[in-house]
Write a structure and sequence with these properties.
The complex is a heterodimer of chains A (about 110) and B (about 110).
Chain A lengths: L4 E3 L2 E5 L4 E6 L5 E9 L6 E6 L5 E4 L2 E6 L4 E6 L8 E9 L5 E3 L3 E6 L1
Parallel strand pairs in A: 2-11
Antiparallel strand pairs in A: 1-3, 3-8, 4-5, 4-9, 6-7, 7-8, 9-10, 9-11
Chain B lengths: L4 E3 L2 E4 L5 E6 L6 E7 L5 E8 L2 E5 L6 E5 L5 E5 L8 E8 L9 E2 L3 E5 L1
Parallel strand pairs in B: 2-11
Antiparallel strand pairs in B: 1-3, 3-8, 4-5, 4-9, 5-6, 7-8, 9-10, 9-11
The chains are: A mainly beta (about 110), B mainly beta (about 110).
């Protein structure tokens, strides 16, 4: 059983603050790490797919880093806005199979 | 809009019944995934198909089955339904493999078993 763990489970930040969350995963048989953003009453939307150790990706104020040797990824949000409020999911593809295992998510609420 | 269509949006049925959930992937996507999200739980992987063939299986119950048809749409069949099967069922598609491509999710089917 793959354990994809995310922390914290929930987070409240003030508008304008920067924040970050962690995704931890088994480092063996790593193929890819995905990040998704899931707003209430909508479906998850992809942010990043990361495959290489040391990879960094950026989309606007959101960025992510990847360390496959130690099995973690960080998601950063710079200058949080109320519209950033959502659950952020990471998901692991490992072992050469197409199975994608999701963490339980970090629920972010940005307070105006 | 992700381009993935799931029907129906809502389904209410009684214990012991059987239902079919339908998913049409994004145009051109060959791979379809099914996930279950129960209350206070994360997305649980059920099963994956690629171009009509089953490729990966998660903790899918024996009462559940799925298939992908030649036109690439997929159906998830849930039988002998129990109260605990009440959940949001998502379908997602991707062109081929998830090692480079993200999943594109439909809006889900909310199943309520009474």
């Amino acid at each position: 059983i793959l354990n994809v763990e995310q922390s914290p489970q929930s987070l409240h930040v003030q508008e304008g603050d920067s924040t970050n969350f962690t995704c931890s995963f088994p480092s063996s048989n790593f193929y890819a790490l995905h990040w998704y953003r899931w707003e209430t009453a909508k479906s998850p939307e992809a942010l990043f797919v990361m495959t290489l150790n040391g990879d960094e990706k950026k989309k606007g104020r959101i960025s992510a880093t990847l360390n496959t040797k130690e099995g973690y990824s960080y998601l950063y949000i710079k200058g949080s806005q109320p519209e950033d409020s959502a659950t952020y999911l990471c998901a692991l593809n490992s072992g050469g199979y197409q199975k994608v295992t999701f963490g339980i998510g970090t629920k972010l609420q940005v307070i105006p | 809009d992700s381009g993935v269509t799931q029907t129906p949006k809502h389904l209410i049925t009684a214990t012991g019944q059987r239902v079919t959930l339908r998913c049409s992937p994004r145009s051109g996507d060959l791979s379809v995934y099914w996930y279950q999200q129960s209350l206070d739980q994360g997305l649980q992987f059920l099963i994956q198909y690629y171009n009509g063939e089953e490729r990966a299986k998660g903790n899918i119950l024996e009462r559940f089955s799925a298939q992908q048809f030649p036109d690439l749409h997929s159906e998830l069949n849930l039988s002998s339904l129990e109260l605990g099967d009440s959940a949001l069922y998502f379908c997602a598609s991707t062109l081929s493999g998830v090692e480079n491509s993200p999943l594109h999710f439909g809006n889900g089917t909310r199943l309520t078993v009474t």
